[in-house]
Amino acid sequence: MDYSPNPDHEAIVEAVDKVCAQFDDAYWSRCDAEHEFPWDFYAAMAEGGWVGIAIPEEYGGGGQGIMEGALVLNRIAASGAAMNGSTAVHLTMFGLNPVVKFGNDQLKDTFLPRAAAGDLHVAFGVTEPDAGTDTSRITTRAVEDGMGGWIVSGRKIWSSKALESEVCLLLARTDGEPGEGFGGLTLFLVDLDEEYCDIAAIPKVGRNAVASCEVAYDELPVEGWRMVGERGRGFHHILHGLNPERILLAGMACGIGEAALRKAVGYANEREVFGRRIGANQAISHPLAKAHIELNAAWQVMKEAAWRYDNGLECGEHANSAKYLAAEASYFAADQAMQTHGGLGYASEYHVERYWREARLQRIAPVSQEMTLNYIAQNVMGLPRSY
Ligand SMILES: Cc1cc2nc3c(=O)[nH]c(=O)nc-3n(C[C@H](O)[C@H](O)[C@H](O)COP(=O)(O)OP(=O)(O)OC[C@H]3O[C@@H](n4cnc5c(N)ncnc54)[C@H](O)[C@@H]3O)c2cc1C
């Protein structure tokens, strides 16, 4: 790895920071409070070419790697947009990766140029009421229609951005029974056609500008060419995208931590209690310094994971470690930022409660901290599998 300054990365940081500066904390608080998707912000990011940064150049994208994607998401989150901003773009930015890797030409030619232009919103439908961590339990079925196509029925939960999205990358069962392993699962890029899909937002703690939804599929017709990759290999195709997703998540998490620390340091330098600034108390300054160190450490591991992925090296250990470290560091930083603000930390006006609600999510989704630890225990350390 090269630790010297990278002019390309510095240019990305400068340009994305400039776009994000147009959308202040008040904008994000309003989107969050009103549960309103940040359309203006999305349009500005698309116009700058940032939404298509990871799509191959032959389809009109930026052809950049995961490191650059993580950098973009990090700067969005660090601006104060947190996950309301970063997850507004990341599914289009990277959600179509299985299509890039395994999709047929018709799928790629039809959808990737529109994704690269920021003109295609994409949702991701894996989780179901009885199949979260254990994906082998998926019951949503795709059955052949006898004419080369498929009919999909079932219920997904937590499909983020389903209300805004035209298409959804959907994992459905084409063969076998729930709990029999992963072999019967197949990936499709389906239309979220309201005639056959009933979509409802799930009320939740935070990141309220980007709704996550329950989606009921009622005999949705899907043409044969909308299958992504091979029948029965859907879980394998999604697995391919899990490491990059963890790396991107780590980039976002570090950004939320940065935003929280910026607010905390500002407040600790200003607020006077007992006739002195609260930042002079080590009970305030030491946790903030610790958060700074931990965020830096997580960022370094994230960079190594991204570098390994972009150079075609095995990166499971690093991607899982980065996701784990960044989620912990981000939440610790947000929690300390709230503590530093005292009672005002709990007031919406100071924004740290919004960061805190969003940082908490990182420890649960898209993969829980427990599952990253399971990965390291089993695959890196050779401990027995717990499930
Ligand atoms: C805001 C939000 C957005 C989301 N967006 C999407 C999306 O766009 N698309 C999508 O498909 N999904 C999405 N998800 C779902 C998310 O990926 C799941 O919530 C997550 O994978 C955990 O699954 P679960 O909620 O079913 O938890 P469960 O599987 O019920 O697990 C519950 C708890 O038990 C723990 N646990 C289970 N088994 C073990 C074990 N063997 N060892 C140790 N601990 C274990 C888990 O870590 C977890 O803490 C989203 C979730 C949220 C909250």
Describe this structure as you would to a colleague.
By secondary structure, the chain is of the alpha+beta class. It has three domains: 7-116, Acyl-CoA dehydrogenase/oxidase, N-terminal domain (Butyryl-Coa Dehydrogenase, subunit A, domain 1, Orthogonal Bundle); 122-232, Beta Barrel (Butyryl-CoA Dehydrogenase, subunit A, domain 2); 236-380, Butyryl-CoA Dehydrogenase, subunit A, domain 3, CATH 1.20.140.10. The chain contains eleven helices and ten strands. A four-stranded mixed beta sheet has the order 1-4-5-8. Helix 4 (66-94) packs across helix 10 (352-361) and helix 8 packs antiparallel against helix 9. Flavin-adenine dinucleotide (FAD) binds at residues 124-127, 132-133, 158-160, 204, 207, 212, 361, 364-368, 370-371, 374, 386-387.
Keywords:
387 residues; Butyryl-Coa Dehydrogenase, subunit A, domain 1; Butyryl-CoA Dehydrogenase, subunit A, domain 2; Butyryl-CoA Dehydrogenase, subunit A, domain 3; 4-stranded mixed beta sheet; binds flavin-adenine dinucleotide
CATH level 3 topology of the largest domain: Butyryl-CoA Dehydrogenase, subunit A, domain 3
Shape: globular
Mind telling me the CATH class of the largest domain?
A: Mainly Alpha
Q: How large is the count of helical segments?
A: 11
Helix vs. strand class: alpha+beta
- Tell me the helix content: 40-55%
- Secondary-structure element sequence? HHHHHHEEEEEEEEHEEHHHH
Task: Please compute the radius of gyration using only Cα atoms.
Answer: 21 Å
Distance between the termini: 36 Å
- The neighbouring-strand order within the major sheet is 1-4-5-8
Whole-number count of domains: 3
Main pleated-sheet profile: 4 strands, mixed
CATH superfamily of the largest domain: Butyryl-CoA Dehydrogenase, subunit A, domain 3
Low-confidence segments: none
Which architecture of the largest domain would the CATH scheme give at its second level? Up-down Bundle
Assess the beta-strand content as a share of residues.
5-15%
Mean pLDDT: 96
Bound molecules: flavin-adenine dinucleotide
